[in-house]
User: Which sequence fits this backbone?
């Protein structure tokens, strides 16, 4: 989550472009049944939407990740390694439904249990997939575990991460293709010390994609044959996209596209939208931080970098760390469907981003979330919830229509 290691960007031209665009605006797992059966009214302008949050549970200990279950429950991962259950009819369960604390390295502010998602067949198997920093040295770890049998946890994939305790990534999610996606940070500290972002030989600074329904050789998973670097010498075949700093929150929409919130260093926070045909995309770090150049020595001639679809500067927004969210696919506010919602850990601004029919994206700030938002996710019906780190609570999110104002904050990109 942190932006430790501030280093100003000195590329004046890039900054001027960014500042001009910032004045214009500061500113894609829902059930198939709900989506298919819902009406599709014309989306309203983003400036006519605002978010409203209602606290529904409290007493959580540094809640960090959120996911919906088919039975209507929300599972909440706490950094120390426990998983809590919330249901709108019965509230927050008093006891954890899963306790992995004996395995979790919680040293430093950013280590811990970081991601959780149910298997597609969870209703039958009770299997969860979790991402965490493991004892004794903080290795980034992807594992699966039956919710009622933590002793049967099986580690699937690890990446050493001993030197620094920040930039761990940690989101896990299943795509519509049935494969599991996992995000990993660049190795920590500041300035990409291992030059991981542009290095295809490491999983650091990447989002990976694996098949957890099969085994290949000694590995408890297989690499899908259409992963972009399967046949590239020296590259890890698990990689799906690269050039990331700390993508600790991403989501996968109904078209199997990835919406990625990538935490910047000292200047820019960014959101990327990567469609399936953009597999292998290079998102730029640490050649670039957002669109401005960060480290010219990491920029290679002839390399194509994929621009973020939304970015914002710290110094104009009081932001510090983007909290990636999800595309709204619920039915309570049909006019908002198809809108990506994200936030910032410091400013708590609610960012709305939406593709435009003719190409490009529109964006707006549509209110604020409660303090220190760490995760935004949807229940089985596609309705949104947000977690707050400290003092530790869960809020339900809804949209309201507002009258447009002449100085609305929407802008096009």
Assistant:
């Amino acid at each position: 989550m942190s932006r430790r290691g501030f280093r100003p960007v000195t590329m004046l031209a890039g900054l001027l472009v960014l500042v001009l665009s910032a004045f214009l605006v500061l500113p894609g797992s829902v059930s198939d049944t709900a989506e298919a059966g819902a009406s599709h009214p014309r989306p309203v302008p983003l400036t006519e939407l605002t978010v409203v949050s209602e606290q529904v549970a409290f007493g959580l200990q540094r809640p960090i990740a959120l996911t919906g279950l088919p039975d209507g429950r929300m599972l909440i991962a706490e950094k120390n390694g426990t998983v809590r259950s919330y249901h709108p009819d019965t509230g927050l369960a008093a006891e954890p439904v899963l306790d992995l604390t004996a395995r979790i390295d919680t040293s430093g502010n950013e280590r811990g249990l970081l991601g959780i998602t149910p298997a597609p067949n969870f209703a039958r198997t009770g299997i969860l997939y979790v991402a965490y920093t493991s004892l004794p040295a903080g290795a980034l770890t992807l594992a699966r575990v039956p919710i009622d049998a933590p002793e049967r946890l099986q580690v699937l994939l690890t990446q050493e991460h001993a030197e620094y305790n920040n930039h761990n990534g940690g989101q896990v999610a299943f795509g519509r293709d049935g494969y599991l996606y996992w995000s990993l940070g660049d190795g920590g500290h500041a300035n990409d010390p291992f030059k991981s972002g542009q290095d295809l030989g490491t999983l650091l600074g990447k989002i990976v994609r694996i098949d957890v329904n099969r085994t290949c050789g000694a590995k408890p998973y297989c690499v899908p044959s259409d992963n972009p670097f399967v046949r590239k010498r020296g590259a890890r075949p698990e990689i799906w996209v690269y050039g990331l700093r700390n993508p600790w929150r991403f989501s996968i929409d109904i078209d199997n596209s990835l919406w990625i919130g990538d935490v910047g260093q000292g200047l820019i926070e960014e959101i990327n939208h990567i469609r399936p045909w953009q597999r292998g995309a290079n998102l730029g770090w640490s050649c670039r931080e957002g669109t401005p150049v960060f480290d010219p020595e990491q920029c290679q001639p002839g390399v194509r970098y994929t621009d973020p679809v939304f970015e914002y500067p710290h110094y104009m927004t009081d932001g510090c760390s983007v909290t990636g969210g999800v595309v709204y696919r619920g039915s309570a506010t049909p006019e908002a469907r198809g809108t990506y919602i994200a936030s910032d850990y410091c400013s708590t601004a609610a960012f709305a981003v939406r593709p435009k029919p003719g190409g490009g994206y529109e964006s707006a700030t549509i209110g604020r979330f409660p303090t220190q938002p760490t995760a935004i996710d949807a229940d089985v019906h596609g309705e949104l919830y947000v977690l707050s780190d400290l003092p530790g609570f869960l809020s339900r999110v809804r949209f309201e229509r507002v009258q447009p104002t002449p100085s609305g904050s929407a802008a096009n990109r």
User: Anything to note?
Assistant: The CA atoms of residues 110 and 400 lie 34 Å apart. The chain has four helices and 26 strands.
